[in-house]
Amino acid sequence: MEYIKNNKKLLYIFVIIIGVIVIAVVFAVMTRSNAKKQVKKVVVNSELPDVAVIPTIESSVGVQLNQLLPKKEVEFIFNNIPQGTERIELELTFKTTEKDQDGSYAEIKIESGAKSGKQKFVFGTASSGVMRYVTVVGDISLNAVFHGSYGERMLTKNFSL
């Protein structure tokens, strides 16, 4: 200890090292307590967001599936479309041998006063003038949303090919 008192340079280095250690410990303790406080302040909102529910279309509205090319091209024909319908959004979902979930989307414009409409779907894609069909596995599901002066109405139906 006598040696440190006589050598002031070594004493300054010793004080600086102790000071750095004290500052590091204080910083670590403050950071840890702030992290705990932040975790306590997290609030989870358990309420679900408001979602618009679309009512079902009247049971008099019908849809039938015609296979134009078996398991390759189909046509949906809608009958008894409600008065005031302007358009029908169609979403078709199905499984293929290549994908677990595949689908297609289309929209039918309905002429004023029309009671029927139809839409064709092709299970495949055309590239360089060559049609490449996919192999549909299982049922296909049709979700149709009717838009008109009455608002929105939904029709959901599954079909076997």
| CATH architecture classification of the largest domain | Sandwich
Q: SSE string, helix = H, strand = E?
A: HHEEEEEEEEE
Oligomerization:
single chain
Give the biggest sheet: 4 strands, antiparallel
Biggest sheet, spatial arrangement of strands: 4-3-8-9
**Class of the largest domain, according to the CATH hierarchy?**
Mainly Beta
Determine the CATH topology of the largest domain.
Immunoglobulin-like
Taking pLDDT < 50 over at least 5 consecutive residues as the criterion, the unreliable ranges are: none
Number of domains: 2
Question: Structural class of the secondary structure composition?
Answer: alpha+beta
Strand fraction equals 35-45%
| Overall radius of gyration | 35 Å
Shape descriptor reads: elongated
pLDDT average, as an integer?
A: 85
Tally the helices.
2
| Helicity, as a percent range | 10-25%
Measured distance between first and last alpha carbons: 95 Å
Description:
There is one protein chain. The protein is 24% helix and 45% strand. It has two domains: 40 residues; 98 residues, Immunoglobulin-like (Sandwich). The chain has 161 residues and is an alpha+beta fold. The model has no long low-confidence stretch (mean pLDDT 85). It starts with a helix and ends with a strand. It has two helices and nine strands; from the N terminus they run H-H-E-E-E-E-E-E-E-E-E.
